[in-house]
Design goal:
Elements lengths: L12 E4 L2 H11 L5 E4 L3 H4 L1 H9 L8 E4 L4 H9 L4 E3 L7 H10 L3 E3 L5 E3 L8 H10 L4
Parallel strand pairs: 1-2, 1-6, 2-3, 3-4, 4-5
Length: 140
């Protein structure tokens, strides 16, 4: 995950599916930059409140990216709830208007999810799983 020359490096993203994923990712990151991305379309089945409930115990809302797939209503609800970054398919007719609104709110509407390591495929109980996540996060 190399930055484009002259631009700051984006925090590496991990896809979280539950509270254990959040705790594991934050523990391994140990205060270093990380983005906590929902699974694709999670705004539709988990809901904004469900996603926020995963993050709240850790104070991790500033690290959040919620994927609303092609549902502009879910994207709007996420922005109104304070989610700092929301993914919405760019083909959605309301994308431009919601992107402008997001900017005015100090948030960002993303046309696609960033590259991310899916924590569903990482075994928390093995040292190899921790090392795999640490490598993804570019940690020593």
């Amino acid at each position: 995950m190399q930055p484009v020359q002259g631009q700051p490096r984006e925090a590496p993203a991990v896809i979280i599916h539950g509270a254990r994923d959040v705790a594991f990712a934050l523990e391994v990151a140990a205060g270093r930059p990380i983005a906590l991305l929902s699974a694709p379309g999670a705004a539709g089945y988990l809901g904004v409140a469900g996603f926020l409930a995963l993050l709240a115990p850790h104070g991790a809302l500033p690290l959040a990216i919620l994927d609303a797939a092609a549902a502009p209503g879910h994207a709007l609800a996420a922005l109104r709830a304070g989610v700092p970054r929301v993914v919405l398919a760019q083909r959605v007719p309301a994308f431009a208007a919601l992107a402008e609104l997001a900017g005015a709110m100090g948030a960002a509407l993303l046309p696609a999810a960033p590259p991310a390591l899916d924590l569903a495929r990482v075994d928390f109980h093995k040292a190899q799983g921790r090392m795999h996540l640490a490598r993804w996060l570019d940690l020593p």
